[in-house]
Each structure stands twice: as structure tokens, then as C-alpha cells.
Amino acid sequence: MANTTSDITQYDVVVIGGGPAGLQATLTLARVHRRVLMLDSGHYRNDPARHMHNVVTHDGTPPAEFRAAAQKDIAAYDTATVRAATATAVVPDGDGFRVSIGDEDVTARGVVLATGVRDTLPDKPGLAELFGDVVAHCPFCHGHEFAGKPVAVIGDAAHLVGLMGPVASSVTMIEEAAVDRVERSDLGARVIRTDGTGQEYGGIFVAPTFEQSAPFAEQLGLTMLESGCVEVDVMGRTSRPGVHAAGDLAHTAELPKPMSSVLTAAAAGQVAAAAMVAYLL
Ligand SMILES: Cc1cc2nc3c(=O)[nH]c(=O)nc-3n(C[C@H](O)[C@H](O)[C@H](O)COP(=O)(O)OP(=O)(O)OC[C@H]3O[C@@H](n4cnc5c(N)ncnc54)[C@H](O)[C@@H]3O)c2cc1C
User: Fold this and answer.
1) Both 138 and 25 in a single domain?
2) pLDDT tens digits for 184-211?
3) CA of 74 to the centre of ligand 1 (A)
4) What pTM, to 2 d.p., does this model score?
């Protein structure tokens, strides 16, 4: 049976996503006593990584510890509710939005999308198992850990050669088609080529592709960018009034893709939330 209006819990804002973008957006809204619900389905982009790096005051902190500390911060504010739950639909409803969580609906005047993206690695045996450890994609997050060791870059990511030059003892480009599989080795990882030869490296870089984790941008008909991300302005506003977006799923048209990091996601969450307060006023 459909929910009647009186059954439905109403919020000022629903934040969908509990990574750094959603957590900071929720904290910002809670600090000015907006009724905010944060939904977190529990799948984070940096799930494969044991430690976060390049996060000032948290260099080397496990991502789960960072999220737990953020949730503890949020818990100090009475108007914020955090739920481990998956949003299934977001639709316009009157002068706001209706967010479905399975059979349950909630309404809000504004929605902050912070649902992130999902990575797809090159289809080579061994890569997925070692991703976030001796296989990496971003030298700012994971690169210093291979210092002084030979590093391989698999696929079309020539910029990584220059980036890792001062860190690694050598950087070798390997065509993806020449790679059969990757396996852990004493030094880090061994690349086995299709001709049967193998070479050990301290670390391997790949360039994953990514896509939206959640269907809400599509459901709401938001303007998208060539990268597959939601277009936002500098305040995190999407093409639909009342829907803001922050974190890896969105960027401004000036950038070719998101500046994916914990701190940029959190900063974007703060901006999108502050702009949401202005929108609500
Ligand atoms: C292997 C790896 C290692 C990394 N290491 C670092 C690092 O060391 N330092 C660094 O700065 N950056 C690192 N990054 C990048 C960093 O993880 C991301 O830039 C950052 O997590 C983006 O934050 P976000 O909040 O946009 O998304 P995420 O952290 O991915 O969070 C997305 C949130 O949305 C939720 N969600 C999705 N769909 C739904 C739904 N339908 N309903 C409810 N919730 C939903 C998820 O459960 C999650 O809570 C790394 C990335 C990878 C892949």
C-alpha cells in the first residue's frame, strides 16, 4: 500500500552517501540545526585500501576509522540522523523531493547526492585482488609506499611515468594487451606477459574506468559531463534546483574529471551543504 503523507518523515535535507562528501555535508547542515538524514549503503570507493594517505592530520589512518570519527562528530547534533540504509529512488514531490528507502519514503526540501563512483579495473587476473595494496591508481594516495623500487604502469596512463619518476627507482610502461596476469611477489607484484616472461615490481599502476554508483542523477534527469559525472557549479548545485552533488560523482565543467580525494570530497560536501542552506532560505 502506498504511504500517505502523514506516514512520511519529513526532513529539510536528505544526504545520500556516507563517504567523506556525505559526512561533511551532514555535519555542515547539522551545525545550523537543519533536519538532515544521511543514508549510507556501506560501500565506499576506497574499500580496497587499508590506509588513507595525503589527508592532513589523517595520513595513514584506516578509512573506516575516519568514517567512524566523522559519525561520532555528527552524533553530537540532535537534528542529524544517520542510517545504514540504501536509497532506491529520488523523485520530485511538491516543492521538494521524495526519497525511497525500499518500501519506506521520506521527503525533504533538498537532496545532496554524495553517492560516489564505482571503479572497473583492466580485466587481468590478479589485479583486483592486489588493488589498494601493491596495485594502485593514484600516486598522491599510494605511491610513496613504492619509493626506491621499480614500478610498472599498465595501460594508457603516460602521466604516471612523470609523476612517479622522482619516487620510484624506475618506471616501465607495459601495454595492457601484453599482460597475461599479475601475482603477488616478494618485491611486491610480478607481471606475467602473454609471451610467458615475468618481471617483478615494487608496485603497479593502472588506470581504472569509473561509473556512477547510484541511479539518482539519471532518475532526476541531471545534466551530465563527458566524464560520466554530474555537472555542478562551484557551489555544488546541479542542473535541478534543490539537488546538490558533492564528491567523486560530480565536478565542474572546467575539469576533465573529478579531483578524487578524501579532502576534496569533504570540501565539496561542505560547499554543497552551505549552498543548500542558502537554497532553503
Ligand atoms: C583504492 C583507492 C584508494 C584510495 N586512497 C585514497 C587516499 O589514500 N587518499 C585520498 O585522499 N583518496 C583516496 N582515494 C579516493 C577516495 O577514496 C575518494 O575520492 C573518496 O572516497 C570520495 O568520496 P565520496 O564521498 O565522493 O564517495 P565514497 O567515499 O565512495 O562514498 C560514497 C557513499 O555513497 C553511498 N551510497 C552509494 N549509493 C547509495 C545508495 N543508493 N543509498 C545510500 N548510500 C549510497 C556509499 O555507501 C558511500 O557511503 C582512493 C580511492 C581508491 C579507489
Assistant:
1) no
2) 999 999 999 999 999 999 999 999 999 9
3) 18
4) 0.96
